[in-house]
């Protein structure tokens, strides 16, 4: 099986009642902004890039809030999903890639759990807690 790393960014509104989600073209599903990590890209770089591409927003990441994985046997993939908590630092909500994203909306936390039920700990509980796992990019390692 081929390993695929996917990153998401959890962005919440000021009173933590809504989560920014994107409606994906093709599968017609709602997810957090995110996507596959590209070659020569760190998890952090990918999450920041994907958030910008899918929402038009600039983000800073504050830590990891969840790690999920799945074996997609029909695709021959072992996918590891890393979800970062982020905060908006600039930009404005816009659809930059209409061939990939149909909508970008602030969704009620309870509805977000229904749309994206993959977290053992519900999104509403992840939003409430302010505990994160620190993420460190250790850079390029030499022999």
Descriptive report:
There is one protein chain. This protein has 143 residues and is α+β, with helices and mostly antiparallel strands. The chain has a single domain (2-128), classed as Nucleoside Triphosphate Pyrophosphohydrolase. Helices cover 18% and strands 43% of the residues. It contains 3 helices and 7 strands. It has helices at 43-55, 109-115, 123-128, and strands at 2-10, 18-24, 29-31, 34-36, 57-72, 77-91, 101-108. The protein has a 4-stranded mixed β-sheet, covered by helices on one side. It is globular, with a radius of gyration of 15 Å. The two termini are 28 Å apart. 24% of the residues are buried. The mean pLDDT is 92.
Unreliable stretches: none
General form = globular
CATH architecture: Alpha-Beta Complex
Number of domains: 1
Write down the overall mean pLDDT: 92
Q: Could you write a compact summary of the structure shown?
A:
The chain has 143 residues and is an alpha+beta fold.
Write the layout of secondary structure elements.
Layout: E1 2-10, E2 18-24, E3 29-31, E4 34-36, H1 43-55, E5 57-72, E6 77-91, E7 101-108, H2 109-115, H3 123-128
Parallel strand pairs: 1-6
Antiparallel strand pairs: 1-4, 2-3, 2-7, 5-6
Name the features.
143 residues; alpha+beta; Nucleoside Triphosphate Pyrophosphohydrolase; four-stranded mixed sheet; three-stranded antiparallel sheet; 43% strand; globular
